[in-house]
């Protein structure tokens, strides 16, 4: 853990790929030690580029970033000993079993044999991989391979975990189990987690703080409640069909179209009025509380990507 309580500090971080593609455009943020921090954005927004730079896998084009108090360029070796990574679309070694994959990784990191065996068995049981512990990864489904990859990182004693879409393709029950392990790592062991995810519920459930990134720039940053309050609305009315025009709905609040669905962000006092008007015009309408997903949609534009 860094001495000043900051696990990651980035200032003016830029990354320009060959061909002039700007992946990060002046990103500045801090991640407090012992917290869960989520980085949200559409495909190609720059999330994975940030994770790769912070985990010393990719060189920045400009700016500065320190991880656990070390500079990612000058002191990369010191950082690598203290972090673990679940890469986006990573795969376990196909000729290893889940047990071998986790156990050998822990040994390679310098963990003692007894502790490595204990942690391996524990994490495989928690993520319901015990019955597959001695099955070759080449014979496992994609979901079980992803679980093995996540188990490998979660079993470590790393101070900082980078989880790049760790639950993609997993069922809801498994995602919740992984959430529980992540909470334990931060609340009971004081470790730091940087998470990228397309599941807004995941980010809202787990995160102490979030940043929304769009086209390489941070467009929202802060605690979950703070970011959620950026909409200045408490309710979301979803309208499908009917004869209401966007101009009419704009009178009540911010309007975002998502395919055939129109979302209207309003305060509680206007929610019922919008619903009644929509029903009068032959539309279907429903009301719910504003979530982190609503902030995401309103900031990055129409259409969430899966």
Question: Which key terms come to mind for this protein?
Answer:
alpha/beta, 14 strands, Alpha-Beta Plaits, Rossmann fold, 28% strand, 306 residues
Give the SSE layout.
Blueprint: E1 6-16, E2 22-32, E3 36-40, H1 47-54, E4 62-67, E5 70-71, H2 76-80, E6 83-86, H3 98-108, H4 113-126, H5 142-154, E7 160-164, H6 172-187, E8 192-196, H7 200-206, E9 209-214, E10 217-223, H8 224-228, E11 235-240, H9 246-250, E12 254-258, E13 261-266, H10 268-280, E14 284-289, H11 292-300
Parallel strand pairs: 3-8, 3-9, 6-7, 7-8
Antiparallel strand pairs: 1-2, 1-4, 4-5, 9-10, 11-13, 11-14, 12-13
Helix pairs in contact: 3-4, 3-5
Approximate shape: globular
Strand line-up across the major sheet: 6-7-8-3-9-10
Q: Could you give the distance between the termini? A: 34 Å
Approximate helicity band: 25-40%
**Number of E-state strands:** 14
Provide the CATH architecture of the largest domain. 3-Layer(aba) Sandwich
Q: How much beta, percentage-wise?
A: 25-35%
* Secondary structural class: alpha/beta
CATH topology of the largest domain: Rossmann fold
> Main sheet?
6 strands, mixed
Number of helices: 11
């Amino acid at each position: 853990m860094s001495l000043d309580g900051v696990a990651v500090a980035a200032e003016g971080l830029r990354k320009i790929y060959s061909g002039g593609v700007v992946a990060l455009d002046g990103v500045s943020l801090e991640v407090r030690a012992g917290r869960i921090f989520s980085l949200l954005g559409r495909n190609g927004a720059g999330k994975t580029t940030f994770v790769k730079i912070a985990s010393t896998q990719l060189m920045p084009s400009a700016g500065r970033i320190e991880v656990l108090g070390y500079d990612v360029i000058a002191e990369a070796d010191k950082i690598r000993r203290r972090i673990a990574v679940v890469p986006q679309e990573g795969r376990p070694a196909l000729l290893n079993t889940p047990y071998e994959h986790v156990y050998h990784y822990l040994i390679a990191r310098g963990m003692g044999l007894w502790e490595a065996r204990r942690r391996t068995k524990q994490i495989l049981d928690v993520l319901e991989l015990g019955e597959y512990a001695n099955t070759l990864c080449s014979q496992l489904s994609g979901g079980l391979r992803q679980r093995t990859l996540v188990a490998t990182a979660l079993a470590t004693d790393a101070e900082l975990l980078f989880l790049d879409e760790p639950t993609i393709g997993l069922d809801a029950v498994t995602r919740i189990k992984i959430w529980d392990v992540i909470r334990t790592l931060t609340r009971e062991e004081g470790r730091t987690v940087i998470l990228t995810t397309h599941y807004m519920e995941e980010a809202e459930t787990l995160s102490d703080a979030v940043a929304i990134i769009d086209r390489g720039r941070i467009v929202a940053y802060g605690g979950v409640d703070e970011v959620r309050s950026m909409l200045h609305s408490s309710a979301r009315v979803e309208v499908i069909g009917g004869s209401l025009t966007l101009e009419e709905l704009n009178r009540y609040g911010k309007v975002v179209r998502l395919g055939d669905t129109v979302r209207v962000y309003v305060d509680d006092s206007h929610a019922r009025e919008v619903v009644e008007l929509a029903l009068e015009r032959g539309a279907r309408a429903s009301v719910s509380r504003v979530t982190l997903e609503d902030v995401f949609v309103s900031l990055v534009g129409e259409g969430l990507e899966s």
